[in-house]
Design a protein that fits this description.
Shape of chain A: globular
Pathway (chain B): Lipid metabolism; fatty acid biosynthesis
Family (chain B): Belongs to the thiolase-like superfamily. Beta-ketoacyl-ACP synthases family.
Structural class of chain B: alpha/beta
Order of helices and strands of chain A: HHHH
Order of helices and strands of chain B: EHEEHHEHHHEHEHEHEHEHEHHEEEE
Oligomer: heterodimer
Radius of gyration of chain A: 11 Å
Distance between the termini of chain B: 21 Å
Structural class of chain A: mainly alpha
Number of helices of chain B: 13
Strand order of the largest sheet of chain B: 5-4-6-7-1-8-14-13-9-10
Keywords (chain B): Acyltransferase, Fatty acid biosynthesis, Fatty acid metabolism, Lipid biosynthesis, Lipid metabolism, Transferase
Strand content of chain B: 15-25%
Number of strands of chain A: 0
EC number (chain B): 2.3.1.179
GO molecular function (chain B): 3-oxoacyl-[acyl-carrier-protein] synthase activity
Chain lengths: 78, 417
C-alpha cells in the first residue's frame, strides 16, 4: 500500500470511527462506512489539510469511495 | 381548563462535586468544595486560575468516540445527564407515546469552546476559510435538545431556552407549563453549560464577575461571607424528567416529588447588576408562590441564586425578607454554589435537584465557606452555614437569576397523593 493510501486510511478510521478492515478500496463513504453529508465534507477537509492541497468542490463531489480518494490524492498531492 | 399536576420521575446530574445524582447529593450533604486549579486550559496568565471543573470525567466512558467528537462539551454533558434521568424514569418502549414527550433544554451560552476553537483556527491561517462542517451544529445552544431527542426518539416539542444563568430554570418552567396544559405527557428538561475556556474565563474576568482568590480556590465561593469577591465558574448538567401525574401513576413510575409552581420576571434595570432592592427577585418568588397556590409559610427551604458576588447576594436576601416577612427567620436558606461553583445556565437545574434531594432526605445542604458575618445581612436568618441541617422539608424554592435581568423560580414539594 502506498504511503498516501496509508494516510488516507488513517484519516477515515479516525473521523468515521470505523474498523481498519472495513476501509477497502471499493468502500463508499456513505453506503459502506456510515458517513453522512457533513462527515463527507469533513473528510475532504482533512485530506486537504493532510496533503496541503485545495480540492475544488466540483472535484470533491466525485470522491465518494476510498479508492477514488487515494487516486485523486496520488495524482494531486504535493 | 383544569391544570394537570406535574411530578418528577427522573433525575440526572453531572456536577463538579459528583458525576451522578447520588454522588452529587453525597457531596452536598457533606459540604464538599468542587473548586481547584484550572486544568482544561493554560490559565497561567489569567486573573482567575481556578474553577469548579468536573472530576474524573471522560466523555467516552459514556458516548462512543465518533459520537463524542461531534458534540461540544456542553452537549455531551446534557446527553450524559439525560441518560441517567431517562433511565431512572423507566421510560421504555410501549409505556409512553413518543410524540408526547418533549425536550426543553437550557444553556446560557452553548458551545463556546467549539466556537473559540474554530475562530482561533481560522485566525491562525492565511484567511482561507477551513471551518469544520460540524462547527455550527456543535456550537448552537439548542443542539442539546435536538441530540437528546434523536438519542431517545422523543418527538414532542423540542427547543432550548436561553436566559443566561436562568436558562435551565426557565426551561423547566416551560416544560412544566406544557405538561400542565395537557400538551405533552412527559418532558426531559433542565440544562447544561461548559465554558471553562480562555474565552469563557477571560470574558467573565473582564466583567470583574469572578473571584480572584487564587491562593485558596476551595474557599473562594463564599456566599454571604463579608469577604466574598465574586463567583467561581462551574460546569455541569442537571436534567429532570417531568411527567403528568396520572401518566406516571398509570405506568407505575416511582414519583420523586411534585413540581408545585414556577415563575419568571425581568428586572428592567441593568444588563449585569441586580436591581438594588431585589425587585425582580421579589416579583419572581411572589409569582411562583401564586402559581403554586402556596403561602410563604409553606416553604421550608430556599436554595438561593447566591453566587458569592458583593451586590447580588444582598439584593436577593432583601427580596426574600420582603416576600417571607417573619417566616424568613424560620426558613433554611443556602447557596449550594459555595460547593458547585456557578454552573451558569445549568445552575438552576442542578440546584432544583439539590432542592428535590433535600425534600427526599429531609436534609438541607449547607452554604460552606462561612468565615465572617456580613454586617449588611440580617444575622438572625438561617443561612445553613458550613454544615447540612436536618429538618422536615415539605417544600423548597429554587431561585435563579441571569445577566439581562432574567429571574426564574421553581417550587418543588413532597408528593402526597
Amino acid at each position: 500500500m502506498s504511503d498516501i493510501a496509508t494516510r488516507v486510511k488513517k484519516i477515515i478510521v479516525d473521523k468515521l470511527g470505523v474498523d481498519e478492515a472495513e476501509v477497502t478500496t471499493e468502500a463508499s463513504f456513505t453506503n459502506d462506512l456510515g458517513a453522512d453529508s457533513l462527515d463527507t465534507v469533513e473528510l475532504i477537509m482533512e485530506f486537504e489539510k493532510e496533503f496541503n492541497i485545495s480540492i475544488p468542490d466540483e472535484q470533491a463531489e466525485t470522491i465518494t469511495t476510498v479508492g477514488q480518494a487515494v487516486s485523486y490524492l496520488e495524482e494531486h498531492a504535493k | 381548563m383544569e391544570l394537570k399536576r406535574v411530578v418528577v420521575t427522573g433525575l440526572g446530574a453531572l456536577t463538579p462535586i459528583g458525576n451522578t445524582v447520588d454522588a452529587y447529593w453525597a457531596g452536598l450533604a457533606s459540604g464538599t468544595s468542587g473548586a481547584g486549579p484550572i486544568t482544561l486550559f493554560d490559565a497561567s496568565k489569567f486573573k482567575t486560575r481556578f474553577a469548579c471543573e468536573l472530576k474524573n470525567f471522560e466523555p467516552t466512558d459514556f458516548l462512543d468516540k465518533k459520537e463524542a467528537r461531534k458534540l461540544d462539551r456542553y452537549c455531551q454533558l446534557a446527553m450524559i445527564a439525560s441518560d441517567e434521568a431517562v433511565k431512572q424514569a423507566g421510560l421504555a418502549e410501549g409505556n409512553f407515546n413518543p410524540d408526547r414527550v418533549g425536550v426543553i433544554s437550557g444553556s446560557g451560552i452553548g458551545g463556546l469552546i467549539t466556537f473559540q476553537q474554530e475562530v482561533m483556527n481560522f485566525a491562525a491561517g492565511d484567511g482561507t476559510p477551513r471551518f469544520n462542517p460540524f462547527f455550527i451544529p456543535k456550537m448552537i445552544s439548542d443542539i442539546a435538545a435536538g441530540q437528546i431527542s434523536i438519542r431517545h426518539g422523543f418527538r414532542g416539542p423540542n427547543y432550548s431556552v436561553t436566559s443566561a444563568c436562568a436558562s435551565s430554570t426557565n426551561a423547566i418552567g416551560v416544560a412544566f407549563d406544557l405538561i400542565r396544559a395537557g400538551k405533552i405527557d412527559v418532558a426531559v428538561t433542565g440544562g447544561s453549560e461548559a465554558v471553562i475556556s480562555e474565552a469563557g474565563v477571560g470574558g467573565f474576568n473582564a466583567m470583574k464577575a469572578l473571584s480572584e482568590r487564587n491562593d485558596s480556590p476551595e474557599t473562594a465561593s463564599r456566599p454571604y461571607d463579608k469577604d466574598r469577591d465574586g463567583f467561581v465558574m462551574g460546569e455541569g448538567a442537571g436534567i429532570l424528567v417531568l411527567e403528568e401525574l396520572e401518566h406516571a401513576i398509570k405506568r407505575g413510575a416511582k414519583i420523586i416529588c411534585e413540581i408545585a409552581g414556577s415563575g419568571a420576571s425581568g428586572d428592567a434595570y441593568h444588563i449585569t447588576a441586580p436591581h438594588p432592592e431585589g425587585l425582580g427577585a421579589k416579583n419572581v418568588m411572589l409569582a411562583a408562590l401564586a402559581d403554586a397556590g402556596m403561602n410563604p409559610e409553606d416553604i421550608d427551604y430556599i436554595n438561593t441564586h447566591g453566587t458569592s458576588t458583593p451586590l447580588g447576594d444582598g439584593a436577593e436576601i432583601k427580596a426574600i425578607q420582603d416576600v417571607f416577612k417573619d417566616h424568613a427567620y424560620k426558613l433554611n436558606i443556602s447557596s449550594t454554589k459555595s460547593m458547585t461553583g456557578h454552573c451558569l445556565g445549568a445552575a438552576g437545574a442542578i440546584e432544583l435537584i439539590a432542592c428535590i434531594k433535600a425534600i427526599e432526605n429531609d436534609t438541607v445542604p449547607p452554604t460552606i465557606n462561612h468565615f465572617t458575618d456580613d454586617p449588611e445581612l440580617d444575622a438572625q436568618l438561617n443561612f445553613t452555614f458550613n454544615q447540612a441541617q436536618k429538618r422536615t422539608v415539605n417544600a423548597a424554592l429554587s431561585n435563579t437569576f441571569g445577566f439581562g435581568g432574567h429571574n426564574a423560580c421553581v417550587i418543588a414539594k413532597k408528593y402526597k397523593g
